[in-house]
Amino acid sequence: MRTCQMLYPRDTVTRRAVSMDGMWKFRLDWQQQGYEKDWKDGIPNPDLIPVPASFQDFYTEKDVREFTGDVWYETDVFVPGEWEGREVAVRFGCATHRAEVYVNGVKAAAHEGGFLPFSAVVTEIVRYNAFNKVVVLVNNELNVTSIPCGETKVLSNGKKMSKPYFDFYNYSGLQRSVNLIAYPKEHIEDFSVIHEFEGQDAIVHYSVETTGSHEVEIQVFDEGSQKVASAVGKEGEIRIPDVQKWSVGKGYLYRFEIRIVDGMEVIDEYYDQIGIRTVEVRGKDILLNGEKIYLKGFGKHEDSDVVGRGFNIGMMKRDFECMKWIGANCFRTSHYPYSEEIYQMADREGILVIDEVAAVGLFKSMMNFLEASTGKQTAFFEEPTIPKLLENHLQCIEDMICRDKNHACVIAWSLLNEPETTNEASVPYFAKVFEAARALDPQKRPRTFAMVMNSLPQNCKCYQFSDFLSLNRYYGWYTLGGYEISDAEAAFRDEMDAWAAKEMNKPLIFTEYGADTSAMEHKLPSVMWSQEYQIEYLEMCHRVFDSYDFIAGELVWNFADFQTTEGIMRMDGNKKGIFTRQRQPKLAAYYYKKRWENIPLDYKK
Ligand code: BDP
Questions:
Q1: How does strand 70-79 pair with strand 22-28?
Q2: pLDDT of the residue at 489
């Protein structure tokens, strides 16, 4: 049975969450012997490695960094005696890209998809008042039936390596926190909120899913801990008088306390911090609380030195400080759902998030991000592997929406990045993905997908699925770069004119535009890769953006330099960052600070 095990682990009067983060035993399975030799019962001769973290960048051997296959993790966890009679689970923030979990040698869970949480319910498996052995087999191989898409290549020397169909390093392992959780048998499984305003008040339509039939109560507290509203029942409405709306830069959060009760007895209790806002697309505008907003910000990555894609609480703090300093109000979780703590922080800071599922690489070309600009036509969605891929993709959409649906910061779902759209076969695939997101989201947020360079007004068969269009465009970089930039601007305007001519009456935002730039390079006059060229390129793009009223946002690629697979196009990673990988500003950061501080939130109203 698959339950929606997405509630963030918390301590309450009825629940316990014990962090299992720390040094775990670790071993790469070079000979693929782990299964046969029962490593599930304990890993022989292990190393020690931190969790959460990607395993790749700790070691000095290239074979380890490039390791593709099974890796094993192990730890011992104490389960208190007083937990007997409750449900006990091991909850993983993620395991990239797939995992099997063994507790005391017994298989407790298997999970596919590397960027969303899952739990192994171990109530019947654990020994109480004793240490229990948790062994996790994580596999990091890429293929074309799971997301993100890629291949695993076997070299003639027998070694395996990852060939991603995407432009970020295939970091993997236990990259997010692991918790041992205990909760009552009759418990809150999930809840959702939909907001509406009536004069100065908010009406919150809520629904709570529980595993039993006892009464549910909800109480709402403001930031001063004053109770402002309450309700009884699994479903209903709560009126919050004189509501403080959640908005950009003002992440006002109410504390919702949910209880299952039996008279005076509390059977289960959960709480969450909820921002109250509405989001919709109307005509050419994206509206927050009924008012037009212009998106300013970044495509990002979870990526930093040494820990790779591992959740890094210090880096998260620094990233939000940099975003506030520069005047950004939005980021896209390119190209996968991020760690839960990042959405909590965005809720708190009043930063908007376009939440993207890991459907990247749905384009039949290993170097799709390069070949896209050549106009090459492929037929990814005609492959026999598509039904299986769709199944995995839909599951990830369901899990992402289940996990993130109550976050005020999440204003839209991005359902794919740079898929192929020029072939008829993509249409039914898109229809299913977009329908699923609409059906699953109680708040019916806008849906979009990021369109690759060759998805153009004249040939794209799927743009109409998006509630607002999201374009990834590199005029002046991958095409017509350097001294040809004036032609790039003309070509860019031609495309925008062609979109305008469609009279879609929809907003369009840029989810990517950018130029690789060395933080060391200054050139007068500019050349490509110099900091001066990055600014000239950005100025050109912004002249275009400022000329069209339906362009409702600009998310530059990328917030910071990030790691990729090595190759002739990448010098130790992608250098399109406005900040370096260490989160120091390039010259362009000062340019943006000036631009964004002068662009009002309701720009182009
Ligand atoms: C786009 C991809 C992004 C790449 C970027 C680039 O969506 O992942 O990193 O281009 O080439 O194609 O920098």
A1: antiparallel
A2: 98
521 is catalytic: no
Q: How far apart are CA 420 and CA 459, in angstroms?
A: 11
CA distance 162 to 142: 6
Which run of H or of E encompasses 540? Answer: helix 531-546
Q: Which of 87, 100, 302, 418 is catalytic?
A: 418
Let me know if 597 is a catalytic residue: no
Q: Which atom of ligand 1 is nearest the CA belonging to 452?
A: 12
From first CA to last CA, the distance across the chain in angstroms is 49
Annotated catalytic residue, options 74, 112, 340, 512: 512
Residue 370 reports pLDDT greater than 80: no
What pLDDT, in 10s, does the model give residues 324-334? 999 999 999 99
Question: How many whole angstroms separate alpha carbon 31 and alpha carbon 160?
Answer: 12
Q: What residues does 409 pair with on adjacent strands?
A: none
Rounded distance, CA 51 to CA 93, Å? 11
Kindly give the distance from the C-alpha atom of residue 369 to the centroid of ligand 1, in angstroms, as a whole number: 6
Ligand 1, pocket-test mutation among 166, 168, 470, 574, most atoms within 8 A of CB = 574
Query: How many alpha carbons fall within 13 Å on the CB side of residue 388?
Result: 9
| Angle at which helices 531-546 and 485-501 cross, to 10° | 30
Q: Structure tokens of 573? A: 């990673």
Task: Render pLDDT for 132-142 as a digit per residue (tens, 0 to 9).
Answer: 999 999 999 99
At residue 12, φ and ψ (nearest 5 deg) are: -140, -175
Would you say the CB of residue 167 lies under 6 angstroms from ligand 1? yes
Structure-block tokens of residue 465? 């699925």
